[in-house]
Amino acid sequence: MRARYDGDEHDDDAPVGRVLTRREAVRLLAASGAAVLVGCDRGAGASTTDTAAAAGTATSTASNGAIASAAPLPGCVVRPELTVGPYFVDKQLNRSDIRVEPSSGKAVEGAPLALTFNVAEVGGGKCTPLAGAMVDVWHCDAHGVYSAVNDRMSGTDSSSQKFLRGYQVTDAKGVAAFTTIYPGWYRGRTVHIHFKIRTPAGAALADQRDKAYEFTSQLFFDESLSDRVFAQAPYAGKGRRDTMNASDGIFRESGGQLMLAVAPSGAGYEASFDIGLDLTNAETGKAERSDFSDRPN
Fold first, then answer.
1. How many domains does the chain have?
2. Tell me, what CATH number does 211's domain have?
3. pLDDT tens across 108-157, in order?
4. Terminus of the chain with fewer CB atoms < 10 Å: N or C?
């Protein structure tokens, strides 16, 4: 399915992520024995300190309000789910290097970024590598343009292109690796990368949406690093961005748990992201159908 977005402005819709309620935190702690940093249910928000209070004497509150535990932390963290936004297109491009535009064979310009996802399943007090999960990644180019959309705001029609989109299926260690670029920015949003995890991958590829667990969220970047990257070509020509993390509602909804730890690597950068999924959470795992003939609700 190819979706098309013809809205008058960039709009990633309202946030849908939240931290766990007291009752949910206690239930998950009792079931897994794991520390809960951030939940991943949809709905109205609860504070991170509420989550810490729910854990009672089994946990203590860290300086940032997240839950700390006397027991060793699991090797993954439950993260908040955030809005899919208007630019997801299920192209089903099975590729690790998403920089290349298939129609021309050329890679888009930008600082190289090696991005690795470490996906696990949370349960039974431990994190187990989740093999066979489909990880989709999509984001804008250095100039703030997404492929596969006709965007009247920026005057660009990239609906026939597929750059900076692709998926990988996690291996036996739960790893999915991508080669991309540091994303640019566009009006009204801070710097971010979208991702979606669906499992099992076979159900997602067969469009059996009722048989696949689906989790969608976004990754964010350190402001000072973005400033340094955007001072260089090809980003510099776009000027100063208008939205920072602190003023981005979707970033604030993330509770700071979706920041990428980015490090220099050769001529570019590298980052890895650990995420644990509670596959028993049917509400979070519901598929999100997207119709981009209009803005999403």
1. 1
2. 2.60.130.10
3. 999 999 999 999 999 888 899 999 999 999 999 999 999 999 887 667 88
4. C
